[in-house]
Design goal:
four-stranded antiparallel sheet; 209 residues
């Protein structure tokens, strides 16, 4: 999904000016958007990858989802206008983010721009797609056993790729964070699952048997 879908190139510059858009670049590990940066700012990943994570007061992190090119960041908190104390967005690679004033996005301007309604429609679709990703995460972490969490996650990945052999978009550390399990426990369980001939794997490539 593209925020600019069905908006002609000649209208994009006017649209970006209307919503006071600006672009910033970040290096891997930098905070892209933090809770204290204002509830009315949203961003779109133009290039690179961003991790949406939660972190408690002891510094324990959980990976909610991985956002690549075209994904929105910060829209949930901008829509709800609630202060957010736990969720941050961290660059998983060098990335470029297009920031917008959320208030100007959802309220059509005095110019009655024809493309503005299309922009709102596109953003609603993007929010729905992201919510779907978070529902998939909820399906994974709702499982009580590590093996069931792993199998649910790998089944989702297999269905998305349309193959029983596929690459996952994260290493073991991020996979453990995403599944909300200890990394050592994850490594042990993967080895047991391979011994039981449930899966085969090498690095980030998995095969469901």
């Amino acid at each position: 999904m593209d925020i600019f879908e069905n908006i002609s190139p000649e209208n994009r510059d006017a649209m970006l000016e209307c919503v006071k858009a600006y672009e910033k670049t970040f290096e891997k590990g930098e905070f892209v958007l933090q809770p204290d940066e204002g509830a009315m700012t949203i961003g779109i990943v133009i290039e690179g990858t961003v991790n949406m994570v939660t972190e408690d007061i002891w510094g324990n992190r959980s990976l909610l989802c991985i956002l690549d090119s075209g994904n929105l960041i910060g829209e949930t908190f901008a829509c709800s206008q609630e202060e957010n104390y736990i969720t941050t967005f961290i660059a998983a690679s060098s990335c470029s983010i297009l920031f917008m004033d959320f208030g100007r996005v959802i309220h059509t301007c005095d110019m009655r721009c024809g493309f503005h309604h299309r922009l709102i429609e596109n953003m609603v679709k993007m929010i729905a797609l992201k919510n779907f990703e978070l529902l998939k995460k909820l399906d994974v972490i709702s499982k009580m056993q590590i093996r069931k969490k792993i199998l649910t996650f790998l089944s989702q990945q297999s269905a998305e790729k349309g193959s029983e052999t596929f690459d996952i978009p994260m290493g073991r550390v991020k996979m453990a964070e995403y599944l909300c399990v200890d990394r050592s426990a994850l490594t042990r369980e993967l080895s047991k699952m391979a011994e039981d001939r449930i899966i085969e794997f090498e690095g980030n490539r998995f095969t469901l048997l």
